[in-house]
Amino acid sequence: MSQQNLESLDVEAIREAFPILEREFDGEQVVYLDNAATTQTPDPVVDAMSNYYREYNANVHRGIHHLSQEASIAYEEAHDRVADFIGADGREEIVFTKNTTEAENLIAYAWGLNELGPDDEIVLTEMEHHASLVTWQQIGKRTGADVEYIRVTEDGRLDMDHAREVITDDTAMLSAVHVSNTLGTVNPVSELADIAHEHDALAFIDGAQAVPNRPVDVDAIDADFYAFSGHKMAGPTGIGALYGKQELLEEMEPYLYGGGMIRKVTFEDSSWDDLPWKFEPGTPQIAEAVGLVAAIDWLEELGMERIQAHEEELTRYAYEQLAAEPDVEIYGPGPGPERAGLVGFNVDSVHAHDLASIMNDHAVAIRAGDHCTQPLHDKLGVAASARASFYVYNTKDEVDKLVAAIDDARQLFS
Length: 414
Ligand code: PMP
Description:
Elements: H1 3-6, H2 11-15, E1 24-25, E2 28-29, E3 31-32, H3 43-55, H4 66-86, E4 94-97, H5 100-115, E5 121-125, H6 130-143, E6 146-150, H7 160-166, E7 171-177, H8 189-198, E8 202-206, H9 218-221, E9 225-229, E10 240-244, H10 246-251, E11 262-265, E12 270-272, H11 286-302, H12 304-323, E13 328-331, E14 342-347, H13 352-361, E15 364-365, E16 367-369, H14 374-380, E17 385-389, H15 396-413
Parallel strand pairs: 3-15, 5-6, 5-7, 7-8, 8-9
Antiparallel strand pairs: 1-2, 4-10, 9-10, 11-12, 13-14, 14-17, 16-17
Helix pairs in contact: 3-11, 4-11, 5-6, 12-15, 13-15
4'-deoxy-4'-aminopyridoxal-5'-phosphate (PMP) is lined by residues 36, 99-101, 129, 131, 177, 181, 206, 208-209, 229, 240, 372.
């Protein structure tokens, strides 16, 4: 880590790029701790998208006129920028999707439906988000492939001995979450990919909660596929990215058909364009791609290591205060490198939804519910949990407001 990266973030300066954080509700300034759902969007990202619409809005695919040329170059180069950001070899390996969920579905349909059969197994983890769990479960039902789950331990980690048991020569696909959106656990995804590869299985890593807040290198992980969403990393909604190893994407059939993804069409048959366009039919998310590039530029200027360090510090601060309360149960590992910037918890006497509602009375925005991990909540023995999740603009003062609001809720309900 360079010296520059060891300096902490200038949160006050960062917050100036987010006018939304100045909003007040009933005289209380908003405390936004729902970043695992969606992060706020800094002015440079909004400006880049607005500049696109004001200056060079046109359809892509290389129209002859100037505006289309400019839009096409920006859109195509956005793939290069994303590739560079996550350590992919080039634009051929980056497919823009609507979000992480669509990336999971793309591989499940384009690869899974064609490659899986009753002799195959799909291995997931018990902490998968529904984006992966429901998708592979349904592909399993349609192809006859079995779905197995790597166990989560009492302390919210993956049981790696169990991983070595369930990943076998019958396994065709391992799909694992990099960072759990419920437990905050940072999984050993490189080790998981290695185990999958020892059995000639492919590894899909869901990076929705990892790419926003830590350096990610898909090559170092040796993921076959990796997915994330723009709206969780200071970027716009409506765009996500799927990374795939080029040789795998080359072999796969398209998932959606239409214009913009073909090479030659006759009344009888069609052939496909080069990667990644083969997987991007129709008019794509041009403004959103421009916004995603602006978000990556903005994050890299802050420094991904510094962002990670900032989140770890806030999480430790929040965790220690919550852990000191006898009636608070926190899910997932303790603070440190195995815990990302979120804390999922329950307070004994207060239902998570009531807690979120009382927090809202103080303009503290947290999430309550199953966080799209219902089976994991079943395993934890609760229907819902409360989740506070942090980003670059959050402060220790805001964590104090969270803790004070919990006190308030406790008094109200006791
Ligand atoms: N995976 C994880 C771990 C997530 O946290 C989320 C969002 N909650 C998703 C997948 C789905 O992301 P999106 O809604 O952007 O498709």
